[in-house]
Amino acid sequence: MSHFMGYHRPNGDVGIRNHVLILSGTVYANGVVERVADTIHGAVPITHANGRCQVAPDLRVTRRFLAGTAMNPNVGAVVIIDHFKEEGMTAEDLADDIAPTGKPIATVNIRGDGGFISAIDKATRYAQSFARQISLEAREPAPLSKILFGTECGTSDTTSGLASNPANGLAGELLIAQGGRMLMAECTEWMGCENWLTEKAASPAIAQAIVAGVQHMEARALASGEDIRGSQPTGDNMAGGLTTIEEKSMGAVKKIGDSPIIEYLEIAEAPTKTDPGNYVMYGPGMGAESISSMAAAGCQVLTFCTGGGHTSNHPIMPTIKVTGNRQSFELMRDTVDVDVSGVFYDEITLAEAGQIVFDEVERVCNGYLTKSEALRDNNSFAIHRVGPSV
Amino acid sequence: MKKVFVVYATDNVGTAVLEPIQTGDHVGCNGERSDLEVVAQADIAYGHKIALMDIAAGDTVLKYGLSIGSALSDIKAGDHVHTHNVESNRGRGDLAERDAVTAE
Q1: Out of B31, B45, B90, whose CB is closest to A192?
Q2: What is the domain range of residue A120?
Q3: Which residue out of B66, B79, B97 would a mutagenesis test of the A interface target, given it has the greatest number of A Cβ atoms within 10 Å?
Q4: Which of A146, A284, A293, A388 is the most buried (most CB within 10 A)?
């Protein structure tokens, strides 16, 4: 079995990065979070618009996103900052969720710690201490079976279903052959090819959950006045040559391979199983929310297949962009990592394209920076809402 | 010779992703099925599909090695394959709507 060099966590997880996460518990702590992260070497801020005036089911999802992100193996230590007395989700609540990972955690409360400036002071000192503490940790060998490999597609075009997505599915199979797990979300994109997925389900319950997940997402869209099934494929999809919903969806879901689907997850929920294979998660097609849900589930690395080229990058989960569109690669070569357009010109086979994607994933797991990481463009943290602000 | 791309060996359509195809063009295949050659019976725009063999009405149209729908009419090798001659088997909302119209 192949190995990679990663950061071994007290709970047995292995990270491919060693970030100090400065985590905002609420929208009103975002300013403090940004100032602290600016000051500290290797610190990554995560800010968002949530944490206040949410209905309970929605707040539970937000809490899973925030705690899950901090629990991700790529995070070496966490400083959580909140504002006052947050209802239903304090910094301490988040710290309790994260504690089983055994990683260093500190909490700062802006009011409790004496205001904006004092909170910055206190949090910066925690973060400095953590940054130095985790800098002593070194990469050690770990089996590839420790990798939970997330995958996403966005700004898709004709080339996506033909090259980048199937190449990515083959890369996933190479990881699964090493004992690893691949995770796909975006259940709006399963619409029309539920059968292809349910045939792979390891149990009838998983198959039922897949179908129910798609129906649930459709029903939510319908309740807002949008019939997403009737509108698929869209007019511009058809003008671009896509004929049916299954043609569009198959192109999207081919970003996973043929291995069994071991578990169905709710959004931002970590797998409970460790068997090699595919894992699927309920969630929207919206890229930033989707990849954030996969980071919260524990994915250390993600491939983002894109026809048009993309800038998406998650703050703590390296996001490898893969395209099959040569023109997009040329236009977006400062953020798109891998070009597999050679399959169209018979320069490489699809199997070779899969190996190229896998090799890039393996390099990134060993510490190679993605193009967006080198640019520190950490644009893609977003939390999926399941209820209104009140 | 112009080329279309074929994803999977069992596919009966190719996609014009390298260059657009004009009626009468001799068309070969990159990717899988390099053995196949057809004469285009229609213009095939970028991203659109061409039949690589005859597909009878009701037969499955295969891309990625998977069904992307059924032929609505007899499709000849070299024909443009799109919404005018293929229907979805999975678009249940559309089928429900059509069934409702039929029932009226």
Answers
A1: B90
A2: 19-135
A3: B66
A4: A293
pTM over 0.90: yes
| DSSP three-state, residue A378 | coil
Q: Are residues A177 and A253 in the same domain?
A: yes
Chain A CB contacts of B47 under 8 Å are 157-158, 240-242
Cβ contacts from A onto B, under 8 A? 97
Say if residue A148 is in the same domain as residue A131.
Answer: no
- Judge whether A153 lies within some domain: yes
Query: In this structure, what DSSP letter does residue B73 have?
Result: S
Calculate how close chain B gets to A195, using CA atoms only, in Å.
Answer: 9
Answer whether residue A6 is part of any domain. Answer: no
Strand partners, A15: A7
Task: State the total domains in chain B.
Answer: 1
Q: What is the CATH number of the domain that holds B81?
A: 2.30.130.110
CATH number for the domain spanning A229: value is: 3.40.50
Tens digit of pLDDT per residue, chain A (390 long)?
A: 699 999 999 999 999 999 999 999 999 999 999 999 999 999 999 999 999 999 999 999 999 999 999 999 999 999 999 999 877 899 999 999 999 999 999 999 999 999 999 999 999 999 999 999 999 999 999 999 999 999 999 888 889 999 999 999 999 999 999 999 999 999 988 988 888 999 999 999 999 999 999 999 888 888 888 777 666 787 878 888 899 888 989 999 999 999 999 999 999 999 999 999 999 999 998 999 999 999 999 999 999 999 999 999 999 999 999 999 999 999 999 999 999 999 999 999 999 999 999 999 999 999 999 999 999 999 999 999 999 999
What whole-number distance in Å separates Cα of residue B82 and Cα of residue B98? 19
Q: CATH number for the domain including A112? A: 3.40.50.2300
Residues 6+ apart with CB under 8 A from A32: A24, A81, A108, A110, A116, A119, A120, A123
The neighbour count for residue B6, using CB atoms within 10 Å, is 23
Put simply, whether A298 touches B (Cβ < 8 Å) is: no
DSSP state of A99: G
Q: Which of A157, A161, A243 sits opposite B82 (nearest CB)?
A: A243
Q: Flag whether A388 is in a domain.
A: no
Measured between beta carbons, the chain B residues lying within 8 angstroms of A229 are 91-94
* Amino acid present at A4: F
Residues 6+ apart with CB under 8 A from A188: A214, A217, A221, A228, A284, A285
My answer on whether A189 and A335 are in the same domain is yes
Query: Quick one: how far is CA B93 from the chain centroid?
Result: 23
ipTM score assigned to the predicted complex: 0.88
Contacts of B5 in chain A (CB under 8 A): 162, 343-344
